[in-house]
């Protein structure tokens, strides 16, 4: 049995009264590849922030529990402490300086220097760089990774896969490196590059370096990791040897939680052929949430869920349809083609959007609740207006009455309609956004992340409200959410988006494993599927 | 006891928050100067008369800041664009031989036509340089003034009241007395109250334009313009055509600049060409900021408060400073310090585009 390199014992962390990590204990052995998996918000990043002594941890009250490195209890207060202990990180976004050569990037701030006459007088900072030995060191690190690229080339212009390797080379060039954290290293790589990276990881592990491998790609985890730890909602679900488990089990563990199906009429009749929205090959250029060609058909009167992990593109779909971000493709709404990249036309044709970015796109924070509710209808449908001479003016009376109705109907907790929208709580702000969308009398309502950043009680209210709108007003709803449980509680069907494409569409009562596999993008690798069905 | 102290400090902070620090400082300073002036034997009525006149004279130029700030392009540092449109209308009207009220009306009409045309292209330019509007605006203003310096010389205008006595081109300063254009607004319904001269016509024009801008800001178009300024993403998602709005707002701003300079010139009695418009944006920007506006939020009330405070300060400071420090040019130095200091202060308060 190999000795323990790192052990995290009973780590807990509170953020503003929310417990985001509960009693996590993980051991990483020397030469082990330990995979860490979980949905967004499961606690992976928080755990890594603790390990690296990031300021965000200590400025929010620190953590509970102990960290031991090679049997010795350590107190990691700053990222420098972590580096000093031999913990290194390979970032998802590359932290390289494009104009510098590979050697310079690898040796940045750890340069090897020679004395010269000026430095003898003015001090160490003016010593000459010893490029010869620096190049030799860089060469050695690159060779360890089987990289045959020349160390004197500039980083700018290298393929993405090479940049990732240079990041790694920089970490392993540090003499005391003992533990390396890979944060979603394969997310940006092509398949062959990813294979090279995994091989390199194995090689490093054989040298006795412990590796924490954060990924949501189940196949990769099964392929390279020795053990896998699953986190869910800040809790340590299980740690297993990869030999004793398979991706179905991991997927199930990752997603699995009690799901309550709130729809009483979930088996009601929907006309399969009556599509209100047909999307063909939609591409959306939303930074960080790119959509790379999807086809979808939404039936009239249903609640359609779009789920998936963060950054995979699910958020981009609604933003693209509404013209908030540039989009391309064919969309047919209510029988007529929809003009993309034109928010005005989209709203006019009967689409309405509640944005995921409530404080940025969703609200005029400094303006009154009333103006926030009527704004879009006033601008697009010319509601609440009186014409005096050449100008259109706001009809204050009608606007006020309407706002008051909405406040009552959606139960927005406020003093009056003239209160600033920014002074409301998150849940009530969300209701103001919904009120504005409803004021447009939409045929189809796009709701993105309706419960993000609002407390649990308010979440339930918002979800119930969506259900009510669908049932009583017959509004078709497309709901995008990172919270799968939420989607499963009210949707008729759920599409899972992975890497900018639809991985598959499932009914809400499909198995946890199916959802987990789809979210990690390994559902459609057929062989696996058949193998499992056979067993 | 400690609690009480806390409460009091909080109160002061609240006052500063609602009135605005620059407004407060300048306001207190102005009152101090007025007291000092009276103590030194300068008649208060003269100071107030001057303040009225100068406020009315500069008011419309300050008002030009409102649409551009509301639309999100920041204070209109390119005010000289509007100003040269106004001056061009003014000299053409003289060239055509109009005098008196007809001259004024024709000048304004021509100026508005030029301003709509030029303002449109200026708005297009601003849409192309989103994020650095204020810098671009400043240099656009400077460039247009330089360009017009050439035109004033080269245009084939030959009315004897404006031509150099020798050679070609227009004079640097055109006397409006000669065409019966000086003080036509100032003298309209002018009356005296306790020794204070009220330039009724001038103030009426200023307040009428204020009213129009205020009404416009309450209209559908005005609401969409200011929403686009406050939160472009929100407005875009709500189907507002932000670029179109920004152009409209800057056309309005340019028109106000053009009308403003004609009103200014008739009150001053002279039209100043060549380099005179170069720095005219800065006192106007300073005035609206003193009135409580920021680089991203402005109301018509800020214009009225600001122009009276700032011009009041300038008119009062000059005689007072001259009495106290005889033989110096202190008041001009003070004007520069206050004017540029206030602009600097306001620019430091600008929050980055993406919050």
Mean of all residue-level pLDDT scores of chain B: 86
- By CATH, the topology of the domain at 1-85 and 178-245 in chain A is Rossmann fold
Helix fraction of chain A?
A: 25-40%
Proportion of residues in extended strands of chain A: 25-35%
Number of H- or I-type helical stretches of chain B: 14
Q: Would you identify the CATH architecture of the domain at 1-85 and 178-245 in chain A?
A: 3-Layer(aba) Sandwich
| Strand portion of chain B | under 5%
- The CATH homologous superfamily of the domain at 1-85 and 178-245 in chain A: P-loop containing nucleotide triphosphate hydrolases
Largest sheet of chain B: 2 strands, antiparallel
Could you say which overall geometry of chain B the principal axes of the C-alpha atoms support?
Answer: globular
Number of strands of chain B: 4
Number of strands of chain A: 24
Which pair has the most extensive contact?
A-B, 31 and 20 residues
Portion in helices of chain B: 55-70%
Taking all Cα atoms into account, the compactness measure Rg of chain A is 27 Å
Mean of all residue-level pLDDT scores of chain A:
84
């Amino acid at each position: 049995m190999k000795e323990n390199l790192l052990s995290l014992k009973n780590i807990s962390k509170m953020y503003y009264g929310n417990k985001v990590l509960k009693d996590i204990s993980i051991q990483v052995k020397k030469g082990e590849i330990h995979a860490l998996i979980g949905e967004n918000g499961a606690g992976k990043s928080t755990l890594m922030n603790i390990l690296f002594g990031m300021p965000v941890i200590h400025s929010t009250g620190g953590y509970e529990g102990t960290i031991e490195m090679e049997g010795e209890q350590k107190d990691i207060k700053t990222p420098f402490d972590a580096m000093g202990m031999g913990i290194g990180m390979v970032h998802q976004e590359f932290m390289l300086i494009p104009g510098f050569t590979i050697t310079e990037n690898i040796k940045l701030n750890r340069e090897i220097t020679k004395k010269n006459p000026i430095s003898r007088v003015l001090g160490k900072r003016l010593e000459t760089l010893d490029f010869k030995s620096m190049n030799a060191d860089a060469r050695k690190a690159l060779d360890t990774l089987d990289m045959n690229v020349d160390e004197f080339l500039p980083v700018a212009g290298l393929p993405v896969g090479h940049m990732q390797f240079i990041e790694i080379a920089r970490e392993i060039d540090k003499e005391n490196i003992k533990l390396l954290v890979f944060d979603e290293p394969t997310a940006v790589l092509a398949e062959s590059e990813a294979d090279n990276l995994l091989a390199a990881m194995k090689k490093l592990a054989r040298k006795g370096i412990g590796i924490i491998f954060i990924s949501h790609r189940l196949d990769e985890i099964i392929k390279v990791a020795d053990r896998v730890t699953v986190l869910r909602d800040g809790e340590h679900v299980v740690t297993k040897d990869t030999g004793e488990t398979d991706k179905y089990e991991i997927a199930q563990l990752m997603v699995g939680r009690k799901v309550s199906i709130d729809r009483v009429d979930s088996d009601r009749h929907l006309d399969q052929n009556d599509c209100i929205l047909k999307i063909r090959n939609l591409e959306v250029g939303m930074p960080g949430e790119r959509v790379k060609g999807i086809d979808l058909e939404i039936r009239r009167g249903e609640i359609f869920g779009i789920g998936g992990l963060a950054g995979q593109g699910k958020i981009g779909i609604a933003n693209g349809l509404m013209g908030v971000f540039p989009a391309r493709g064919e969309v047919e709404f209510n029988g007529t083609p929809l003009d993309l990249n034109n928010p005005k036309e989209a709203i006019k044709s009967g689409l309405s959007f509640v944005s995921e970015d409530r404080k940025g796109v969703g609200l005029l924070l400094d303006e009154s609740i009333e103006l926030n509710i009527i704004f879009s209808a006033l601008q697009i449908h010319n509601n609440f207006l009186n014409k005096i001479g050449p100008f259109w003016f706001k009809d204050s009376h009608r606007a006020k009455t309407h706002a008051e109705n909405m406040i009552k109907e959606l139960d927005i907790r406020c003093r009056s309609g003239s209160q600033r929208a920014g002074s409301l709580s998150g849940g009530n702000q969300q209701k103001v956004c919904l009120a504005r969308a409803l004021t447009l009398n939409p045929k189809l309502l796009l709701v993105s992340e309706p419960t993000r950043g609002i407390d649990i009680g308010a979440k339930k209210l918002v979800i119930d409200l969506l259900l009510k709108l669908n049932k009583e007003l017959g509004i078709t709803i497309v709901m995008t959410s990172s919270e799968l449980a939420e989607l499963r509680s009210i949707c008729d069907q759920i599409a899972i988006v992975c890497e900018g494409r639809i991985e598959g569409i499932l009914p809400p009562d499909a198995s946890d494993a199916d959802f987990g596999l789809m979210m990690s993008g390994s559902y459609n690798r057929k062989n696996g599927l058949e193998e499992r069905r056979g067993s | 006891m400690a609690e009480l102290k806390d409460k009091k400090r909080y109160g002061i902070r609240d006052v500063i928050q609602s009135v605005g620090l620059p407004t407060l400082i300048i306001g207190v300073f102005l009152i101090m100067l007025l007291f000092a002036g009276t103590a030194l034997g300068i008649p208060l009525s003269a100071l107030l008369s001057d303040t009225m006149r100068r406020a009315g004279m500069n008011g419309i130029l300050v008002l030009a800041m409102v649409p551009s700030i509301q639309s999100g392009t920041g204070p209109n540092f390119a005010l000289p664009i509007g100003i040269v449109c106004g001056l061009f209308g003014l000299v053409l009207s003289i060239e055509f031989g109009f005098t008196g009220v007809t001259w004024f009306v024709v000048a304004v009409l021509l100026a508005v036509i030029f301003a709509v045309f030029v303002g449109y292209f200026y708005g297009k330019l601003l849409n192309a340089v989103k994020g650095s509007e204020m810098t671009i605006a400043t240099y656009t203003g400077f460039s247009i003034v330089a360009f017009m310096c050439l035109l004033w010389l080269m245009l084939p205008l030959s009315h004897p009241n404006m031509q150099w006595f020798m050679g070609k081109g227009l004079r640097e300063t055109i006397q409006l007395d000669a065409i019966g254009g000086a003080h036509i607004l100032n003298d309209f319904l002018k009356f005296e109250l306790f020794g204070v001269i009220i330039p009724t016509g001038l103030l009426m024009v200023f307040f009428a334009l204020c009213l129009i801008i205020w009404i416009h800001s309450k209209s559908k178009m005005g609401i969409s313009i200011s929403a686009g300024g406050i939160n472009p993403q929100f407005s875009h998602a709500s189907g507002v055509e932000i670029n179109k709005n920004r152009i409209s707002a800057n056309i309005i701003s340019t028109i106000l600049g053009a009308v403003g300079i004609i009103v200014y010139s008739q009150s001053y009695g002279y039209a100043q060409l060549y380099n005179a418009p170069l720095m005219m944006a800065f006192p106007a920007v300073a005035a609206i900021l003193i009135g409580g506006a920021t680089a991203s939020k402005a109301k018509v009330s800020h214009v009225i408060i600001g122009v009276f405070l700032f011009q009041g300060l300038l008119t009062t400071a000059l005689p007072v400073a001259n009495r106290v420090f005889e033989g110096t040019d202190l008041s001009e130095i003070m004007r520069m310090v206050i004017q540029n200091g206030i602009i600097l202060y306001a620019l430091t308060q600008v929050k980055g585009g993406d919050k």
